[in-house]
Structures are given as structure tokens and as C-alpha cells.
Design goal:
Helix content: 25-40%
CATH architecture of the largest domain: 3-Layer(aba) Sandwich
Strand content: 25-35%
Oligomer: single chain
Radius of gyration: 23 Å
CATH superfamily of the largest domain: Vaccinia Virus protein VP39
Number of domains: 3
CATH class of the largest domain: Alpha Beta
Structural class: alpha/beta
Number of helices: 10
Order of helices and strands: HEEEEHEEEHHEEEEHEHEHEHEHEHEE
Shape: globular
Number of strands: 18
CATH topology of the largest domain: Rossmann fold
Strand order of the largest sheet: 14-13-12-15-16-18-17
Bound molecules: S-adenosyl-L-homocysteine
Largest sheet: 7 strands, mixed
């Protein structure tokens, strides 16, 4: 696949994506390729840039797999990439619960692998990766010997690539739930039925830092899912914990984990915005409020509406705080910058006549590393804020 003049520059700077308007379609028409083909990418002058897989029907029409001409992507390449990925996780995690592969950031574009001990939950987000499924299974077998692999391919991003959504067992046996330890709590995690790949590993370090803020506190965990924040608080000395989520199923598993750990939490099922309003109307107050919502901004064009939603949410959360409280405010929207989230928090505070001090800033845990050339690999922000009356 030959590029137009100058279009190799970004790739040489480390980026992995080729956009369809960067291809010299007179020399190499996109219609001459099939989705999933692995090709050599060449500069205008014919210089080798790298190997890539192609999807001629997508705006991102190719993603680089390797830059070493001697080593075209094959089984050895995949095993090597997985080993490099594994050695990073081994450095940071004592137990085998983490994101083993984070797509582009591990130089495996379109592939996500979450590890729950011997069971793996895997997403293939592109046609190129979808075509490599047999090789992926073989390489995972070589590197981590899983007892079960689940293809958890029900995410919306697949539609952009023209892929159907489905969840199916890829190899071995996949139990309906797995267990994992985090911050001294044993969580039960539904795999096929769970959200995304089952557990939000990206927040693990932030939830760990959270422990030191909760002793003796009344804690509200909003958008709790399985209780990652709330049960951590309950375990580490919170006086009382309330979790809010719209999913009855998530709250069911949350209560299951609470009971198994002999912890007590209250759960409220409902829309977070409405629940926060009625808690306020009822005069309830909390020392700690955690806001960890799903992405309100999925596409750039939703940025305006999304920013308003973050602002409103933070205002609703903040007005439930006691006089000197802690707000943990998160966003996993790539299209909301750290500065924009902070601005939303600050506007909410000014509206309520409060003063905010940011005590700590968190991002993705190191099993979700950032690729410096690919801004999209960075998405998670967490601000730990003291909120006081000015
Ligand atoms: N805090 C969690 C992750 C949250 S994921 C953790 O640490 O693991 C987002 C959660 O928000 C999901 O569980 C989803 O069911 C819930 N959710 C989505 N929209 C909601 C809404 N409008 N009101 C309440 N919960 C909502």
C-alpha cells in the first residue's frame, strides 16, 4: 500500500494509523485490498514504513503491526508482543488480575485482553484482529496457558469496522463469574453478562489510593457497577456506604460480594441524576462522594452536551457533601480533557459558593499505558477534591 507524499511522516513519528485519504489510490487503489489483508506500507518514494492490516471500508484504513521488514507479523511476532506485554504487568501486579493487552499501547492495534487468573476476556475491535483470532488463541496458549478464553465482542466500536456483535467462548471453559482480589476485597465478576470486559481495571490504582480517605466516613459511590469504590471504602473503615447504579444486575452482584466479604452497604437502583436529586431533597449528607460515570462524550460532536452533563453531575454530587467533604470526580471520555473536567468541577463549586482544593490527580493504571503518539489511548481522569465552604 503506497502512501501519498509526506503521509509517512506521522507514522515515522510513532503513530500506527493510516487514514484512507493518505493512500496513493492511483498507485494502490483501496478496492484492490480485502478487509483484514496484511500488507507492506510504502512511502511515496517506495521506502518500507511497516507491515499493517487493512480495512478499506474504514476511515482508519490500515494499522501498523510492525516496522521490522525482516519480521512480518506471524505467530512469532504475536508471541513476542504478548511476552513484552506480560512482563510489564508482572512488574506491577502481584496477582494475575489486570489488562494484559491494551491495543495500540501494546503495539497490538484493535486487541484488548483482560486477565482473570486463568480465564481471559478478549475483544477484537477491527477486522484485521478478527481475522487473526486463531493465531491469537495459539499465542495466548503459548504465553499464559489459559483454561478459558471468552470473545467479549459486544462493544459498539465494532460497528465502525462493519463487525457484528457477539459473545462466545473461544477456547476451554469459561465460568459465568470469576473472582478477583482488589484492596483486600474479593469481588465476584460476571464475565459474559458483565459490562465491557467485566471489570474496570483502569481505576485499580485510583481505588487503591482512595483507601486513605474513607476512615469513619459516610460514603456515596455513584455509578458503582460491582462496587469497586464502595466496597473498598467499606473494607477500609467507612462508617456507612451507599452505592447507586441503574443496573439491578450489577447491584445484585455487588450485594453478593458485600455479603461474601462480610461488609454492609446500601444499594439504590436508579438513574444517578434523579437519585442524587432525591437524596438532596431528603436532606442526606455524605463525607465522601465518588462520581465514576460511563463516558458521556463518545464522539467529538457530543462534547458540548457532555460537558454540561459533567458539570451538572458534579454539582449534584457536591451539594450532597458535608461542610468539609471529599469529591472523587472521574471521567473516562477521551473527548473531555483533564482541564475541561477540572473546569466542570470548578464551575459547579462556584455555583454552590464552595471552594475546591485538588489533593490528588489520577489516570489509568499502568496496565493501560498511554501511547505518546496516539492521543486516543489516554482517556481516564480522576480528581480527588476537598470541597469546603469558602
Ligand atoms: N465505578 C465502577 C465503574 C462504573 S461503569 C467501577 O469502579 O468499577 C458505569 C456504571 O454506570 C455502570 O455500572 C452502569 O450500569 C451505570 N450507569 C450508566 N448510566 C447510569 C445512570 N444514568 N444512572 C446510574 N447508573 C448508570
Amino acid at each position: 500500500m503506497r502512501l501519498r507524499r509526506g503521509e509517512d511522516r506521522r507514522l515515522n513519528g510513532g503513530h500506527l494509523w493510516v487514514f484512507s485519504n493518505e493512500v496513493d489510490t492511483a498507485a494502490t487503489p483501496l478496492s484492490g485490498f480485502e478487509a483484514g489483508d496484511v500488507v507492506r506500507v510504502l512511502s511515496e518514494k517506495g521506502k518500507f514504513v511497516g507491515y499493517a492490516y487493512i480495512n478499506p471500508h474504514s476511515l482508519i484504513c490500515a494499522r501498523l503491526l510492525g516496522r521490522d521488514e525482516q519480521h512480518p507479523p506471524g505467530k512469532g511476532w504475536l508471541v513476542h508482543r504478548l511476552q513484552v506485554a506480560l512482563s510489564l504487568r508482572r512488574r506491577f501486579f502481584e496477582q494475575p488480575f489486570y489488562r494484559l493487552v491494551y491495543g495500540e499501547s501494546d503495539l497490538l492495534p484493535g486487541l484488548v485482553v483482560d486477565r482473570y487468573g486463568d480465564v481471559l476476556s478478549v475483544q477484537t475491535g477491527t477486522v484485521g484482529m478478527e481475522r487473526m483470532k486463531p493465531q491469537i488463541l495459539a499465542a495466548l496458549e503459548r504465553v499464559v496457558q489459559p483454561t478459558g478464553v471468552l470473545w467479549k465482542n459486544d462493544g459498539g466500536a465494532r460497528e465502525i469496522e462493519g463487525l457484528p456483535r457477539h459473545v462466545e467462548v473461544g477456547a476451554g471453559e469459561v465460568p459465568p463469574t470469576v473472582e478477583l482480589d482488589e484492596n483486600g476485597v474479593r469481588f465476584t465478576v460476571p464475565l459474559a453478562e458483565g459490562q465491557k470486559t467485566g471489570w474496570f481495571f483502569d481505576q485499580a490504582f485510583n481505588r487503591s489510593n482512595f483507601q486513605r480517605y474513607v476512615a469513619g466516613a459516610r460514603v456515596l459511590d455513584v455509578f458503582s457497577y460491582l462496587g469497586g469504590w464502595g466496597l473498598t471504602a467499606a473494607r477500609h473503615g467507612a462508617d456507612q456506604v451507599t452505592c447507586v447504579d441503574s443496573s439491578a444486575q450489577a447491584l445484585g452482584w455487588l450485594q453478593h460480594s458485600a455479603a461474601a466479604n462480610e461488609l454492609k452497604v446500601d444499594a439504590i437502583k436508579g438513574d444517578a441524576f434523579q437519585v442524587l436529586e432525591s437524596l438532596h431533597a431528603a436532606g442526606e449528607r455524605f463525607d465522601v462522594v465518588v462520581l465514576d460515570p460511563p463516558a458521556f462524550i463518545r464522539r467529538r460532536k457530543d462534547a458540548g452536551k457532555g460537558q454540561a452533563a459533567y458539570r451538572r453531575l458534579n454539582q449534584l454530587g457536591m451539594q450532597l457533601l458535608t461542610k468539609d467533604g471529599l469529591l472523587v470526580s472521574c471521567s473516562c471520555s477521551h473527548h473531555l480533557s483533564e482541564a475541561e473536567l477540572l473546569a466542570a468541577i470548578q464551575k459547579a463549586a462556584r455555583h454552590l459558593g464552595r471552594f475546591v482544593q485538588v489533593l490528588e490527580t489520577g489516570g489509568q493504571a499502568p496496565d493501560h499505558p498511554l501511547h505518546p503518539a496516539i492521543a486516543e489511548t489516554r482517556y481516564l481522569k480522576a480528581f480527588f477534591c476537598r470541597v469546603v465552604q469558602e
